[in-house]
Request: fold
Amino acid sequence: MNENKPFSFLAVDLGATSGRAILGTIKNDVLKIKEINRFPNPIIDVNEYLYWDLFYLYQQILKSLNEINQQKIDIHSLGIDTWGVDFVCFGNDGEPLRMPYSYRDIHTFGAPEKFFQKIPKEEVYKKTGIQIMNFNSLFQLATLKERNSSIYPVIDKILFMPDALSYLLTGKMVTEYTIASTSQMMNPYTKTFDTSLLKAVGLSEHNFAPLVFPGTPIGTLSDSVKQQTDAGDIPVIAVAGHDTASAVLATPAKDENFAYLSSGTWSLMGIESKEPIINEETFSLNFTNEGGADGSIRLLKNICGMWLIERCKIEWEKEKPVTYDEIVEEAEKTKPFTSFINPDAPCFAAPVSMINAIQTYCKETKQPIPHTMGEIARCIYESLAFRYKQVLTNLQKLADFPIETLHIIGGGSQNNMLNTFTANAIGMPVIAGPFEATAMGNILLQAKAAGLVQDKCQMREIVRNSVEIKTFTPHNTSLWDKHYNNYLKVYKEL
Reply:
């Protein structure tokens, strides 16, 4: 391909609170991005069940294509990535049977323990290497079956969220590897579904579309989509459908001696491994082995991230509008090291009031109760930094290479205060950026499908050529170490 000719791609990046369509143009090994459309992704509460609005998301993709057309931009392809585990069930006529449940729906609480009566917890982990979390696809399906869901007997195909949206655009069904790997139904060694786990929830491999790997063309836009958007025969590419897999691909690392922290609604901290790491230690630490965009394994830990701040912000805005910068400013003015929480405590998963949940946690652990916006935000940010240290310490024991740097990518990488806290807490350099890592990884996989780039090393070089990154060096590490011990005293083991 002519390297002097620009190639444009559209990345549809859907997070658990918002979505965006990002135009990426590559020329001379430099990637430039431009936001085309940004929109909320609300959870819909209907009769005490929480859903995602599949057709709303589809309409937002069409809106993005219309905007591309109005700006007279020619795109080479588009790709979709989303959060993990959630899925859409389709009947044998190819129609969705129901809007997809959100992973935050409370009806899966306690589901793992019930499932382990069929297959022991240790065996489930050994088969999949996936962190035990109540909302994993396996437990969502087990809950549907146990509740005698009206749709369960007529499920023909199950498509994970990015694959379901790609299907609405093309009429072609696939199961992309990285998103399927989050389900707790896949063998990480063979990269295929585990038939015994499927059988336990009354399913088989026939209930899933053919498995494909990142960079595989799915099909072109359907006639219906083309009529609604005036688009041409644009290919839809199966990128790394799990947003974290796309984000990690865009980590601007120069070597392999690093850990990453994909920071958004969730914080996902991990390392890249050539093979799954599944043993008694990873089981006891509840680490996960998810599929990487290049076929590697992402050994990581899911950590509750900006969700804590996002939910508090909604409550604060009931009194007056507040920006994230203002939240940070208030936190900076507040006395440090006063109160800590375990960000992953179950009480923070889906509370009616996040502020009340934090205050109750502090009260029960006999700490000063934070009241002001600054006090609550400072408690969250310091606790996240200490939680990162806690997880990184375990990763250092598991990695077969020295971890010398932590790369923070995603929207949370723009929070300079949290980056500084994290560097101080872990005692090693933090490199922050790019904040649109997920969209960039999505775009680079489309570029690979187009033959424009060859491998992960070249992709990461393009990222380094394209973005300004910041380095945060640790300071006052002895002070942070002292208060880390205080954090551990009030940390409630899950």
Observations:
- The mean pLDDT is 96.
- The two ends are 52 Å apart (CA to CA).
